[in-house]
Write a structure and sequence with these properties.
Length: 269
């Protein structure tokens, strides 16, 4: 597998590592009929039930498929809100084989199997995963949230098999000076206003991300997904993941270390 393919597969797995929500339910719960009258109000209610956290940590395990091959995956993910996403992959007897650290401005990747590392700005992440994907989009994906830094005034709403369906075909980042846009569909459970399924299309590179959340656990008075599935497709490439989460902790002191051994060689994309 090429170096770029290894980076691509790892980033895909990192995206799939976790999707979690962290806010208690509100005392006043609007009815589905009320929400169906106004997509603006519906999306505000969904956002009001977004994750509310300082730090997050969990173990993950499951399987992944890419390039026609099946792989077992396991490791740890840590998030410091708006600052860092850290993933350690350790599938063999708990021994780490790779590590990634993403910040709003940078990407760092360590491959212990090949004694190599990569350091670049956030544009390298966009080059691997698709134009326009940034740190804050990944953070919202990991936490099971809608994209809070995108506009919310172009949604349509419908009732789809007992789920609230919110759809938009022209969504852009707030105050963006670029032409980047996405198409998005969100299926929301009216019992807790959490997203159960999300389909994100990036027309610029014909990429599609599909997410589903199949099991949830109550932790610290909050509902957190414990099982999820993800697929990512683009012309000539497809990857899919099925993951389970355990040992979930919120708002504890965490380390986000990233050190490169002196014998490791730097690689380029």
């Amino acid at each position: 597998m090429s170096k770029r393919a290894i980076l691509y597969a790892f980033f895909l797995m990192a995206i799939a590592a976790s999707f979690f929500s962290c806010r208690p339910r509100r005392d006043i719960i609007p009815t589905v009929d009320d929400l169906l009258r106004s997509p603006e109000r519906a999306i505000r209610v969904v956002h009001s039930h977004h994750a509310d956290f300082n730090t997050f940590s969990a173990r993950f395990s499951g399987n992944a498929s890419w390039a026609g091959n099946q792989h077992n995956v396991s490791g740890t993910i840590r998030i410091q809100k708006d600052k860092a996403i850290w993933v350690s992959v350790a599938p063999i007897l708990g021994i780490e084989v790779s590590r990634i650290l993403i910040t709003p401005d940078s990407v760092k990747f360590l491959n212990r199997l090949e004694a190599s590392y990569y350091v670049g700005d956030i544009s390298s992440l966009q080059a691997i995963l698709g134009a326009g994907l940034d740190f804050f989009m990944l953070q919202d994906i990991f936490m099971g949230n809608d994209f809070k830094h995108f506009n919310t005034d172009n949604f349509q709403i419908a009732n789809d098999r007992e789920m609230i369906l919110l759809r938009t075909e022209n969504r852009q980042k707030n105050n963006s000076q670029t032409n980047f846009r996405l198409e998005q569909s969100l299926w929301v459970n009216p019992a807790d206003f959490r997203i159960r399924r999300s389909e994100i299309s990036l027309p610029a590179n014909q990429q599609k991300i599909t997410l589903s959340y199949t099991q949830f656990l109550p932790i610290d008075n909050q509902l957190l997904p414990s099982e999820m599935n993800m697929s990512l497709s683009e012309p000539g490439n497809y990857a899919a993941f099925s993951l389970r989460f355990s040992r979930i902790t919120l708002n504890t002191s965490l380390e986000f270390s990233f050190s490169v051994p002196s014998r490791f060689q730097q690689i380029e994309l």
